[in-house]
Every structure is written in C-alpha cells, then in structure tokens.
Prior knowledge:
Layout: H1 7-24, H2 26-40, H3 49-89, H4 92-116, E1 127-133, H5 137-157, E2 161-169, E3 175-183, H6 187-191, E4 196-203, E5 212-223, E6 238-243, E7 259-264, E8 269-273, H7 279-310, E9 322-325, E10 331-334, E11 340-341, H8 344-348, H9 353-370
Parallel strand pairs: 4-9
Antiparallel strand pairs: 1-3, 1-5, 2-3, 4-5, 6-7, 7-8, 9-10, 10-11
Helix pairs in contact: 1-3, 1-4, 2-3, 3-4
Amino acid sequence: MINLDISTEIADQRAKFAPIRDVMNPEHLSARVSELETAASAPDLWDDVERAQRVTSELSHTQADLKRIQSIEERLDDLEVLVELANEGDDEDTAAEARAELAAITKVIADLEVQTLLDGEFDPRPAVITIRAGAGGVDAADFAEMLLRMYTRWAEQHGHKVTVLDTSYAEQAGVKSATFEVDAPYAFGTLSVEAGTHRLVRMSPFNSAGSRETSFAAVEVVPLIEQSDHIDIPDNDIRVDVFRSSGPGGQSVNTTDSAVRITHLPTGIVVSCQNEKSQIQNRAAAMRVLQSRLLLQRREEEEAKKKELAGNITASWGDQMRSYVLAPYKMVKDLRSGHESGNPDRVFDGDLDEFISSGIRWRKTTAADSE
C-alpha cells in the first residue's frame, strides 16, 4: 500500500518561496503589466520602433515573471491534492507524478531564489557576450566555438532570444571570436559569473600524434546599453571601417560593404557587426555594443578605485575560472565555487544552471565576507 508523505518537503518549499514572493512583489509586477499593456496598445506605438520594441519586450518579460510567481502557489496546492489522490487510490503512477512535480517546483523556486540575489545596478539587463580564442592554436579556436554553442544552447533551453552580432572564423576550424546578445530579464546578472578564462584539456582531434592538449578561451559579459545611460562617444574618438560580410572559409554572404568595424581610439576597444543586412543597422548595433563595453569599463574603474582606497586590490576573478577536462578523465569544475560535473557532454550541451547558480551564490558570499 502506498503511503506517500512529502508534507515536510512541501512545507519547506512554501517557506523558501515566501521571502522570494516578497522580494519579487507580484502586486508591483501586476501593476507594471497594466502600465505596459496600456503603452503597448497606443495607436502611435510603432512610430518609434526602438521604444516599441523596449515596451513589448519588457511586457513579455514582466508577464512571464508574474506568471511564474502566481503559478507556484497554485502548483503547491495542487501537489497536496495529488498526494492525497495517490494515497487514497493506492496509485503508484500518481505518486510518481507527485514526486516529479515536487522536483520541478523545487527547481523553479531555486531559480527564483538565485534571481533575488541579482541586485547589482545592471543585473536586470540583457547581456552582450564575447568569446575569444586564447592560447592553444586551432584547439583554442575550436574550444571558443564549443563555448559559443554551449551558451546558445543554454539560452534556447530557457526560451531566451539570442542574436549573433559578429563572428570571426578561424582558418582551420572554430572561431577566433564571436559576439552575441542574450535578450532576457537578468541575463547580464545571470551570465556575468561566466566571465573569465575557461580551460579545455583533451586529446586533440587536430594533432596527428593524438597527444593531450590544453587550450584557453576568454569570455566577456557586458550589460546591454540603454539610451538613458548616456555614454557620450565623440565622433573623433572612433574610427569606422566597412567591409563585406563573410562566412566560414571566406564564403561571401553579402555582395555589399555592409559589415561595420568600430575602433574606439582612446581605449583601443574594437567592435564589429555583420549580422544585419544594411550598413546603418550594423553600425547602430556595433555602437550599442561599444557603449556597453565602455559602460562596464567605467564601472570596473570605479570599483578598482574603491578597492585601492580600501587597500584591497586582489582581483575578483582568477586567470582560470573553470576547467573542462575530457582526458584522461571527464570532469568540468568551477575553480571558484567548487561545483563540478562528471558529464562534460551535458555541460557543453547547455546544462549550465547549477554552475551559474553556484557561481552567483559564491559571488554573493564572497562580497559579503569582504564587507
């Protein structure tokens, strides 16, 4: 006879959810949805395309957050009913369904709990991510492309929109660099813990001797700029070059000089964009990325000054923040939080949630300890 008793686990999840609900404030979310719905229904909304896109995007994201909050209490109530049905009907299938639902609710609440830890100034923003191949030759370029796929798969699994802004392909395999945007609430706060140097150890498929090789790739994460941030970039501070877009192997994908490369002369920052069809669109996208990087640089300079005044100039991130080992054993390990996985294939297929959440908690704990 089935005697399913998960009342303690359900009570624990209710207790964890209560403060999360208070922080996310569904009443405020509901009011914001109403405001955005009114704005979205304005007949002249699309007279300003950029504003219309911001309004509709925020409306979609806010509705999703509100729905998640509202559904959790309903799911917990329904779960208690499901347990009763399993016990009364002595039904193992219903009991299994209840256990699976408890696991699903636990994950949703854990994800929301992590989101409440993202209280930085730019954490709610979409993210612009750049991956660059480092030391390791063709293996490093291949590794950079593996990371690009990993983050793209992670975003797709969460329903986040991904826009590739620029890709520079390597001659033999992989990419020299790639820049893409993840448009989702808290994408920057969530993915910022992925910034740093990643290391891959494996038996190289590009080495005829089949020897073990170590290669590196750098991941940069910046918040997407908003017009209200007002990062002024004088025209004489930038150099704009135009060129033809190209794909792998140099294959032409555009017969006009529509791709744009912008160099910020004072800092040496270079941004390219070839995703859009027109030069004007590519220039606008590249300027947004440049402004995002300058915004992050300004923020880092301010933080560095604060640390110097405090007498603590230790970098927040080590040279290698994560190792992916495929030989002689299989292991992915975060060198900051200590979280690890024995299944690199799943990680490279986008299974990053545990690494990201442990990284966010590690960062929060480290910041608290340094205060």
